[in-house]
Design goal:
alpha+beta, 80 helices, flat
């Protein structure tokens, strides 16, 4: 008990505070104290223990000390009064941990608590950028999300899921059956585990219950302390500082929540317990600090514009009111003064619109309920105050995570949700003021989406906490701060206010969290029902919506271009969509059945009231103000959509929810104004308003907006049209579109409101609008599936589409909760019904294509609907595109050859409620317009187009299709004179009006018009005129007057007090005010009917007289079975025929009249009188047309020229079909090669003074180094175990070999024994074009001065070939002289091999035996030097310097012959690793090896090899003094000849010879080297095989030694080699085990022969290639198995008399220059003398791996997810952080940070650095988070594309869609091919500099 006593003393005694006690004893003390207290508290009477604990906590956890150490809390934080996270806080945390654990270890305690976790929910909380999953198949709420672990452990195969990057953060819903279906739970959360978890023992968490309240209170005190309310908003910095100090405390709480359910329920108790909150925080006690803290809290409340209701008001009289903090009483006059309070606190938001805001606000605020919502907050528990501070501090991430981590506790969830709702208004106020509103919005939604997605919870809060009231009120208040006066209609007197879209609140979308919550709760049926039933709420909501009605008003600029184009329009569209439309769709989704009729009636009622208020507020009568338009009419759209739902789903009678006629007339005005404005905008009448107005017109119809904007507008117009007088409606349309004046029979007219150049497009606009209005059935009877199908067909007809763009373009129901999911089954089934999938194809070198959907033939045939296309196109060019595709289809299928017109499509039947719409087609006004237009077109009046005719015919056809059947023949008798409409038409039925002849028309024309001059038939006498008047002269017809008259009638009918109508009846001859006075009346003789006009049009269109012949005269069947495919596609002629046929079918009279008209021979159309002005415009048009045609022709010609050029010149990628370049075109008889310069166009030989050069691209390459010796492909590592080690790559093996040689032999000799360039070798390629080097220099100069931004850097010498634009960076001079050495050099000579060997040696010794002497500095030699410099600079120094003495000439020597080696080896790889295909392959045709050899040879001859050591002598002479070398041990010896790389020797020998080389010298060198190679093969074989094999061979060979061709028998030679080498220690060292490992196979003669052939093949291949390039000989093609013999005979190794009967033996190619056995023993002697000392290394050097497989990129897994899951969380090995942009190298599998500053070295970021180390400047990286591949090439980079595609053949860049991706093998092959062939630079076009920042 001693310890306990000490502890008690510590607690009670007046000792210094704990923090100052010495540390070591401390831990012991803490544990002991904790144990003691726990024991004390476990006793039944634990009061003493409790007090003791309280006292301890009081001291340990006092917030007083750390922050208040200085005088002022703020300073303390700055001065580190509490230290950083100071000692005191750490101390306090230590205490808490000890106390919680009750004396035990904290970790054991955590484990113990975890054991009691009933883990039914996952609840993992994540922050922004976390990768999560969403499965629509399993989700009940659309916000459902799963963490990756739960997703992968559940079974979602075949589900509609996607991966997404969280924007705001979220939490895992696994295990929560409110949000997702149980079938989707993962294995861990499937078990409802609460039953089998044991009950928590009481004493385990007992301490927590005591300690945690104090801890949380301490935290709250810190928060109060740290928040200083300054005059202005506290700066971010101060808040963050406080938060940093509190980081450990909040993390501690967060860790507690992770202990599981048991601890969470304790925390819930603590956080929600009202009593302990009151005891601790009331600020009463004697503790001064607590009082101060409480006052700070009250100040914070007050400054937030919130009242703290006085305690006595809340609690009654329980407590003495004296104790209440005086502050509360002084600061506030109770809750009553709040109204004034609010106004003053919000005043600063009001800028100029103060008075207005006040008026508005007072009106709203009179409702006391709202007031309390906005301004009163009373905190009753820790949770409530914690949330208050969380808001005050703008939602620090840690706090948010802690609060969310608690959510799996059900009790907490309810309490927290209620608290959240209680603080809702306060959250809005804080959000509005916040500087970081984006971050804050995300955090708010992070919380709210967890709370409100749960229907049960949302319902509960709605009932208990008035959630809906709060939300609507808060939204209303939020928007009130940015209202301005509306300028729509009546600017001066308007009382309407709208939101100002320029305010930050709208521009930055600050309102979105609140709106998103609102949409979220409306998705729950129970909540939405309450909303729809509550009349008060609906009124408030309509009030809110009306703030958006008429916002962002556009006024047409008439004089000059607007100075500043405001971009606010996007804010306006977003606001209407998010704040008005989405809640509307949410509500609509609950009005689907008949039982919900009442809701619709409510909404419609309040909507109409709001609209009426709006019309009154803007003083609207009947004419809209001119030249202004707003695209935002949310009230109209609410009304329209609820009407549509009512008829479609609820079987409501439409008329019961429609207002009176007058209201309908008002309703149609603004939507119609928008339609007319669209036409004006497209006619360029708004150009002075800038581009933004076009942007608005496009957004209005764009796929995400159209079904909340244009669709409801058109539907509303359809409803109005179906109920209003048709004549009134039609005349309104033409008046709105400003084309009334155009609709006259006269050939000239004056338009007072429209410029002539806009007339045509406005007329087209008006007619198109009518066609859309009459034929669109979206809301008039189509089912959802039909709509989906129509939308899909329209989109596919415009262009082939990818699956994702279709999903995006088809307007889905914008409310995500509506249950119509994009990608749902109906979508897929409709898609497969209307479209075919075109799999992605690969054009080598072309762009990567994606999988596309294209319309099926029958869709073009029957479903192509131009009306739908016009409605849905954002860009006008898409309509043209659809027509072009339609035309192409008709041509291809042979249905119609010419230019077709848009087809006429049958419509779905109208819903009965809308039958009235068709009256528009049967009203005289429309018939007069149609008649007039037909006449004008026939008479060729100006400003009419084919498009106009097309629409006119379409309307006539619509009218015929929808005619009232019963009126067909007897209507003629009716139409008495009183119905006669100014004697135009007798009735209103189109069928009968069509045949009505109109004789004379009276028109008003300008006096200048041709009609006036002509003598009218009436001018003879006045009485005859009178008689004419009655005989059917149609009167002057004014649409405007007509509309006025009808309007008057409607008004009179609707208002019984007709006498009070002020508006006078306008006269018939009403003319537009301000119209020119000099109009006179003329009478035109017409004598046509619509039918006769149509028939004449047919003649006009076909260009023949009497072209129309009624088809039924030949074939009476036609009338019975009219649906003829012949008429379904075609041009205007077809359309006219189709219409006439339909007219004949509808009535016998029509049929008879058509026949009559056709019988009369039609007189020719009267010649057109053309005025000079018209002639001018016509000429202009004609000229334009001609110019256009000329341009088309030129372009076409140019395109074909370009195409043919591209085919010849630019075949970059496919090495099969190549055209030989100019290099090799010289004929054999020409002695000198002729080159064309592509810059100056001259051709001539290359001379020393003016050398010609080849355009080349030099690039360093490590592709060769990536060859491996095993067949097994390397896979990309996707688990920790799989790693890639580069031991077996070609580069590594060669490196090891060189360093081994350098350890033991003389450096200069080592550098001749191998080749380098496996890594960082220089590859030279050319496009084959040549240019003069001086031309090139001036070309570079011009590029340098060119300011255009190029994709390459001229300073680095980069350019594009002037002819084919291929990328290049150097010019390789062409060596003067003959290009074809046949004549001189290839005659076989009969010299013996010995003579040739001597000649070779002499030639090598002679320096500069060159036609060009180096001494004379010619241009050519200068160029050769400069290109050599370029070649050296192409690669990094480390890839050139291998010598131990830096800068030694041996380095350059090695580098130069290695360049030749690299290029030969790479060409071999491009040919597939062997020469079986033979032929002068493409690589040969455009190869620059010949030129390259000359340049290298020239430079190699500057270095002479030590003459005493020329390998040639060792190969061809026997040296006498064999033993002399053994003497000098110390000095490093030369490399033994058997260790030399034979191919390197070949290149050295050839490059040391004077050029051009003679063929027989070449063959001689090859023969000599082949003997060495063969011997190396034998030696390697002898080392590989076992001891027994060796002795057997030694024996068999010795027997044959004396036969005649012993030197050509491998057995003899092998046995001799073994005998020679046995003299040394080479075979001694090995134990028996080792043999077993090397050679498990017994060697048969066949396998030996095969081994030797394989050993020699690489050399033969390279040599044959070299011969091919130097001497221009073709390579023979052959089978793989005979490659050896074919190549050896091609090289002249095989004697010509060689018989091919018996099996081929490689040894027969040997031709020993000196006796074989002597020279072999000489070579073996060198080896033996080395192995004396180093047997191991000696053996390693002998076994050369010569069979490298082709290089490949790493093999990738089938499914992208496997890569993503492993790499996106993987830590970087360099900086040990998880990179923001991880990438992985596809060549070697290294994991790197893209753009990461963490791994930057000397200003190079990691990817660039890796590309230099791994690929010598070429890097291929897969970006993990984007699934895209980027290529780095030197200082440039490009995005290559993706090799992973989804099920629809599409890339998913940045993983935006998150659908599963699968490897596309073809694409990966293309990538690999480009890597191997080094063609990245040529094929990929979009390169940019990376400035080392990747």
């Amino acid at each position: 008990m001693a310890a306990a006593a000490a502890a008690a003393a510590a607690v009670g005694g007046p000792q210094p505070p704990q923090a100052e006690m010495p540390a070591p004893g401390l831990a012991l003390d803490k544990a002991a104290t904790a144990a003691h207290l726990k024991a004390a508290l476990s006793r039944p009477d634990n009061r003493a223990g409790a007090e003791e604990l309280q006292a301890l906590l009081e001291r340990v956890l006092s917030a007083e000390r750390p922050l208040a150490a200085a005088a002022d809390g703020e300073e303390a934080a700055a001065a580190g009064g509490g230290g950083g996270p100071g000692a005191a806080e750490e101390e306090a945390l230590e205490w808490c941990k000890c106390l919680l654990a009750g004396g035990g270890g904290y970790d054991e305690f955590c484990a113990a608590v975890r054991a009691y976790d009933p883990a039914a929910l996952c609840g993992l909380v994540w922050t922004a950028n976390f990768v999560a999953y969403r499965c629509r198949t399993c989700g009940i709420s659309p916000c459902m999300s799963l963490c990756a672990e739960c997703f992968h452990q559940g079974d979602h195969t075949g589900h509609d899921f996607n991966m997404f990057r969280s924007q705001a953060g979220g939490a895992c819903d696994c295990g929560d059956s409110n949000v997702m279906r149980e079938s989707g739970f993962c294995k861990r959360h499937q078990i409802k585990s609460s039953s089998n978890i044991p009950c928590v023992p009481k004493d385990l968490l007992m301490m927590s219950e005591f300690v945690l309240p104090r801890f949380i209170f301490c935290l709250i005190q810190y928060l109060r302390e740290g928040y200083n309310e300054p005059a202005d908003v506290p700066s971010e910095k101060d808040l963050n500082k406080v938060l940093q100090l509190l980081e450990p405390q909040i993390s501690f709480l967060e860790d507690l929540t992770k202990m599981g359910g048991a601890m969470r329920s304790v925390l819930t108790q603590v956080l929600t317990n009202q009593q302990s909150y009151k005891d601790l925080t009331s600020g009463l006690g004697e503790n001064a600090y607590a009082r101060k803290s409480h006052e700070k809290y009250l100040i914070a409340l007050k400054s937030s514009g919130l009242t703290y209701p006085e305690d006595k008001l809340v609690y009654g009289i329980q407590e003495p009111s004296a104790g209440t903090s005086t502050l509360a009483v002084q600061g506030f006059a109770g809750a009553t003064g709040t109204l004034g309070q609010l106004d003053s606190s919000d005043e600063e938001d009001q800028d100029g619109s103060q008075g207005l805001g006040k008026r508005k606000r007072v009106k709203l605020s009179s409702n006391t309920k709202d007031q309390s919502i906005m301004d009163v907050l009373k905190h009753k528990s820790f949770l409530e105050e914690l949330l208050f501070w969380t808001v005050k501090y703008e939602f620090p991430q840690k706090m948010v995570t802690f609060l969310l981590n608690m959510l799996p506790d059900q009790e907490y969830k309810v309490a927290f949700t209620k608290t959240f709702v209680q603080h809702y208004a306060f959250i809005m106020k804080t959000l509005k003021k916040s500087h970081e509103s984006d971050t804050m919005s995300n955090r708010i939604v992070h919380i709210s989406v967890q709370l409100f997605s749960n229907e049960e919870l949302a319902r509960q809060v709605t009932e208990e906490c008035q959630l809906l009231d709060i939300m609507v009120t808060v939204l209303l208040y939020m928007m009130e701060s940015c209202l301005i006066k509306s300028e729509l209609q009546d600017e001066e007197n308007s009382l309407h206010v709208v939101v100002n879209c320029g305010e930050a609140l709208l521009k930055n979308n600050t309102y979105w969290p609140l709106v998103s919550d609102f949409i979220n709760i409306l998705s729950h049926q129970s909540v939405a029902k309450r909303f729809l039933e509550d009349h008060g709420l609906l009124v408030t909501w309509m009030n809110f919506v009306s703030f958006f009605q008429g916002m962002n008003l556009n006024k047409r600029e008439l004089n000059e271009h607007v100075e500043f184009e405001s971009q606010t329009y996007y804010a306006a569209f977003a606001a209407e969509l998010e704040a008005c439309a989405q809640p509307m769709w949410g509500l609509l989704s609950h009005c689907k059945v008949r039982e919900t009729q009442e809701y619709t009636r409510n909404v419609v009622r309040y909507c109409l009231e709001a609209l009426q208020d709006w019309f009154d507020a803007i003083n609207f009568v009947d004419e809209p103000a001119p030249n202004q338009v707003t695209f935002h009419l949310p009230l109209h759209r609410y009304y329209a959509m609820f009407l549509s739902k009512a008829v479609k789903c609820q079987e409501l009678d439409l008329d019961s929810v429609l207002p009176d006629q007058e209201m309908l007339m008002k309703l149609m005005i603004h939507p119609l104004q928008i339609q007319a404005s669209l036409a004006e905008i497209h006619s360029n009448m708004w150009v002075r308003n800038g581009l933004q107005i076009k942007g608005q017109a496009m957004t209005y119809v764009q796929s995400h907006f159209c079904n909340s904007m244009i669709d409801p507008d058109i539907y509303l117009l359809q409803v109005c049209a179906s109920r209003l007088d048709p004549d009134y409606f039609i005349s309104s349309v033409f008046e709105r579109f400003k084309v009334v004046d155009l609709l006259t029979m006269a050939s000239q007219h004056q338009n007072t409101v429209l410029d002539a150049e806009h007339e045509r497009s406005m007329l087209e606009g008006a007619l198109t609008f009518l066609v859309i209005l009459l034929s669109l059935r979206l809301h008039l009877g189509m089912s959802d599936d039909e709509i989906l199908r129509a939308e899909m067909v329209a989109q596919l007809c415009m262009n082939d589409r990818t699956h994702s763009s279709l999903l995006d373009l088809i307007p889905e129901n914008p409310n995500p909760k509506s249950g119509i999911i994009p990608g749902s089954y109906s979508f897929e089934s409709v898609l497969s019904a209307v479209a075919d999938f075109k799999a992605p194809v690969f054009e080598p070198g072309g762009s990567m294509q994606q999988g596309m959907y294209t319309p099926k033939a029958e869709v073009w045939d029957h479903e192509f609907d131009p009306v739908m296309v016009i409605l849905r196109t954002v860009y006008r060019r898409d309509v043209q595109s659809a027509m072009d595709r339609y035309t192409a289809f008709l041509k291809q299928s042979g249905k119609f050859p010419g230019n077709p017109w848009p087809p006429y499509k049958k419509r779905t039947p109208l819903h009965p409620s809308y039958k009235g719409l068709m009256r528009l087609l049967h009203c005289k006004t429309l018939h007069i317009v149609l008649f007039t237009l037909l006449y004008k077109i026939l008479m060729d009046h100006q400003n009419l187009s084919e498009h106009v005719l097309c629409m006119v015919l379409y309307l006539i056809e619509l009218g015929l299709e929808n005619s009232a059947e019963e009126e067909s023949d007897e209507e003629a008798s009716v139409g008495g004179p009183e119905r006669c409409h100014d004697s135009w038409f007798p009735g209103s039925n189109l069928v009968s009006n069509m045949r009505h002849f109109i004789n004379y028309v009276r028109v008003r024309v300008p006096e200048t018009a041709p009609e006036v001059k002509r003598d009218s038939p009436a001018s003879t006498s006045s009485d005859s005129l009178g008689s004419l008047q009655n005989s059917g002269t149609a009167q002057v017809f004014s649409l405007v007057a007509e509309r006025r008259k009808k309007f008057q009638e409607i008004i009179n009918r609707s208002s019984s007090e007709a006498n009070q109508v002020v508006r006078p009846k306008t006269s018939n001859k009403w003319s537009a005010p301000g119209s020119a006075p000099q109009l006179t009346t003329a009478i035109l003789e017409i004598k046509e009917s619509i039918l006769s006009l149509l028939i004449k049009l047919h003649h006009k269109l076909s260009g023949k007289q009497n072209s129309y012949y009624p088809p039924w005269l030949d074939d009476i069947e036609i009338l019975i079975q009219p649906e003829i495919p012949k008429y379904s596609h075609g041009d205007g002629i077809t359309a006219v025929e189709r219409i006439l046929l339909k007219a004949a079918l509808q009535s016998r009279m029509n049929k008879r009249i058509i026949e009559e008209i056709c019988r009369k021979v039609t007189p020719p159309v009267p010649p057109k009188k053309i005025t000079a002005a018209e002639k001018k415009t016509l000429d202009k048009e004609e000229r334009r047309q001609k110019a256009r045609e000329r341009q088309q022709k030129l372009l076409a010609e140019f395109a074909s020229r370009q195409k043919s050029f591209m085919e010849t010149a630019m075949d970059v990628d496919s090495p099969e079909s190549d055209i030989p370049m100019e290099i090799t075109t010289a004929e054999p008889q020409v002695s000198e090669a002729v080159y064309d310069c592509v810059i100056c166009g001259q051709s001539g030989p290359s001379s020393e003074d003016r050398p010609t050069g080849l355009v080349v691209l030099l690039q360093a390459s490590s592709v060769l180094g990536q060859c491996r010796d095993n067949i097994e492909p390397k896979k990309l590592p996707i688990t920790e175990e799989e790693q890639i080690y580069p031991w077996d790559t070609c580069a590594a093996v060669h490196d090891v070999r060189l360093s081994l040689l350098q350890r033991y032999f003389k450096d200069s000799s080592c550098l001749l024994a191998v080749s380098i360039g496996w890594e960082g070798g220089v590859y030279v390629q050319t496009c084959g074009h040549t240019l003069h080097i001086d031309c090139h220099k001036s070309y570079m100069e011009s590029l340098r001065n060119d300011q255009v931004l190029q994709g390459f850097s001229v300073d680095k010498g980069e350019f594009t070939c002037p002819l084919c634009r291929q990328f290049a960076n150097s010019v390789l001079p062409c060596y003067p002289g003959s290009n074809v050495e046949n004549n001189l050099w290839q005659r076989p000579s009969n010299k013996s091999i010995q003579d040739l060997i001597k000649e070779v040696e002499e030639l090598q010794g002679r320096p500069g035996a060159f036609p060009v002497s180096i001494s004379s500095e010619t241009n050519l030699s200068k160029e050769m030097e400069s290109v050599m410099k370029d070649i050296k600079n192409t690669t990094q120094k480390k890839y050139r310097d291998y010598s131990k003495t830096p800068g030694s000439p041996d380095n350059d020597f090695l580098f130069m012959y290695s360049v030749a080696r690299t290029n030969l080896e790479l060409e071999l790889i491009h040919r597939g690793g062997n020469l079986c295909s033979g032929g002068a392959s493409t690589a040969g045709k455009r190869s620059c090896l010949n030129q390259l050899f000359h340049v290298l040879a020239l430079h190699m001859r500057l270095y002479s090899i030590d003459s005493e050591y020329n390998p040639w002598r060792k190969l061809t002479q026997l040296l006498e003094e064999m033993n002399s070398q053994l003497g000098n041990e110390e000095q490093q010896s030369e490399v033994p000849i058997l260790y030399h790389d034979v191919t390197s020797l070949l290149l050295i020998q050839i490059l040391m010879m004077p050029q051009p080389l003679r063929k027989d010298h070449f063959t001689c060198i090859v023969k000599v080297l082949f003997t060495l190679l063969y011997t190396q093969g034998l030696v390697a074989l002898s080392v590989k095989c076992s001891e027994e094999d060796r002795s057997a061979w030694k024996h068999t060979g010795a027997l044959k030694k004396n036969t005649c061709d012993a030197e050509k028998s491998y057995e003899v030679l092998l046995s001799f080699v073994i005998r020679e080498l046995s003299k040394g220690k080479l075979y001694h060292e090995e134990g028996t085990q080792e043999c077993a490992t090397i050679s498990p196979v017994a060697w048969s003669p066949e396998s030996t022969e095969k081994y030797l052939q394989d050993f020699c093949l690489p050399f033969l291949r390279i040599t044959s290639l070299l011969q091919h390039h130097l001497f221009g000989e073709d390579l023979p093609s052959c089978q793989e198995e005979e490659e050896f013999s074919v190549l050896s005979s091609c090289l002249g190794l095989l004697p010509t008399f060689y018989q091919t009967e018996h099996p081929f033996i490689s040894a027969s190619c040997l031709d020993w220059p000196v006796p074989a056995f002597d020279i072999i023993s000489q070579w073996c002697f060198e080896i033996n003398s080395f192995t004396e000392r180093h047997a191991e290394q000696g053996k390693a050097l002998l076994i050369q791996e010569s069979r490298w497989k082709l290089p490949h990129l790493l093999q990738l897994p089938e499914n992208y997810n496997t890569i993503f899951q492993y790499y996106h969380r993987k830590t970087c090995s360099v900086c040990t952080k998880v990179p923001k942009d991880p990438a992985v190298c596809l060549v070697c599998g290294t994991f790197v940070c893209l753009k990461g500053l963490c791994c930057k070295q000397q200003s190079y970021c990691e990817c660039v650095l890796h590309s230099q180390n791994c690929g010598a400047g070429t890097g291929i990286f897969l970006l993990i988070n984007a699934s895209v591949i980027i290529i780095i090439r030197g200082h440039r980079f490009c995005l290559w594309g993706s090799v992973y595609l989804d099920a629809h053949g599409e890339e998913d860049r940045d993983l935006r869609r998150g659908k599963p991706l699968y490897i596309c093998k073809e694409r990966y092959k293309v990538l690999e091919q480009q890597w191997i062939s080094h063609t990245f630079d040529h094929i990929n076009k979009r390169w940019g500099p990376h400035y080392n920042g990747l």
